[in-house]
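Contributing new records

If you add data, match the layout below exactly. Sequence lines come first and carry their own label; structure lines follow with theirs. Keep one chain per record. Anything else will be rejected by the validation script.
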Amino acid sequence: MIKLTLQNRVTTLLVISSLLFISAFTFIQLNNQIDNINRYNSYQANLSSIIVKNSLENILRQTTHASLEPSGYLQSSLLQLKEAGVVKDALIFNKEGKILACAESSLIGKTVRYKEIGRFSDLEYLAAEGKWFIAKIDKAKKRLDMYLAIKTETNTPVAYVAKISFSLGNIQEALLLVYKPVILTTIIIILLNIFLGFLISKTVIGPIKILNEVTKIIAAGNLTVRTDIHTHDELQELGETFNYMTTELIKMKERAENANPLTKLPGNIVIREEVEKRIKENRQFVVIYCDLDNFKAFNDKYGIAKGDEVIKLTADIFKEAVKAMGNPDDFVGHEGGDDFILLTTPDKVEGITDYIIKEFDKHVRNLYNPEDLSQGYIISTARDGTIKKFPIMTISLAGVTNAHRTITSYTQVTNIAAEVKKKAKSIEGSVFVLDKRKD
C-alpha cells in the first residue's frame, strides 16, 4: 500500500477540488453560452421567418396577378435567402406534400414525410385563430424547424407551407466562446493553489514536520531539544505543550534515576525539591524522619537479604499510612539505608505516626527467629567491635514543622531534624517526637 504524506494528501485535495471547481465553472459557462446562442438563434429564426413569409407571399401575389407559375420564382427566392444566411435550409410544399421549391434542388417534385403533410392541416386550423407558424426543435440534428402558412392573399386559405430550418447552439460553438474565460480561470486557480499550498506547507505541514523530527530526536534519548514554532495558533500551543512535556520528561528521568532501587521511592534530590516546594508555597508542613533502632545489629546477624525485607516492610508501612491516614499530596521518600522521609500536614501527623509505629512493631517481629523473639533480644557485634545484646527492632520518628516557627530552607529542616532524631533515639521503644520549639 502506497504511503501518502500529509503534504501529498493536501496537494491531492487541492488538485481534486480545483478540477471540480473548473469543471463546474466550465459546465455553467457552457450552458450559459448555449442558452445565449439558442436565444439568439430563436430571435433570428422569428425575424427570418417574417422575412421569408413576406418575401414568399409577395412572390405569390405577383405571380398570381401576372398569371405566372410561381415555382421558379419561389425556388430562386429560397436560394437567395440561403445564400444570404437568412436560413440554413428551406423548402415549400403544397397540401398534397409535393415539394414545389427547395434550397436543395434535387428534392423538387418529391413528397415530404407524412408527418410533415399534417402540418398543412395544422396551419389551416391555426390560421383561423390568427396564427401563422409552428416551431419544432429537432434535438438530434440540433436545429429549429419552422412551418409557415403561405397565402396568396390575406383573407384566402393557406396555399402552401414553407419549412425553414435554423441551427441551434452546439457544444463546439459554445466552447469557442468560453475557452478564454475558462483558461483564465484555470490559470488563476493554479496560481491560488500554489500560494495556498505554500501557505499550508509553511503554517501547518512545516510545524508538524518539526514536531515529528523533534519526537524522533527525543525518542533517541536527547531530551535537550526543543521546538520553535511561531504560528500564533493551536500549532504553536501544541509546540509549547510539547516543550513542557519534554521538561517534565527530564524531571521524571531524574526522579527515576534518583529513586531507591530497593523501594522504588524517590531519593534525596526529589525529597529536597518537595520540601523546598512547600516552603516556597508558604504551606504548613511536617517532615517526618525515620530511623530504625538496632537495624545494623539485625542486618549483621540475619544478613543483607533479611535487612532488605525490613527496609521494604518500612517502605510499605509508610505508603499505607499515607493512603489510610494522610492527604492525597503527601509524599514518601527514601534517603537510603533505613532512613525514610514522609511529608504531611500538621493535622494528619498524629494519625500517620500512630499508624506507622503500630504496624511496624506488629510486623517487624515476624522477621525474627522464634528463639530470638522469645528471649526479646539478639546477640550481635556492636559498632565498637564488642559482642552485645540488642533488643527487638523499634522505629524512631522525628518531626520538623513550620507550624510553630518560620522555616526558610531545606538545610534548616535537616539541621533541626538531626537534633530531634537524637532526642527520639534516646527514648526506649518506638516513638514519635515532634519539634514544637518556636525558635
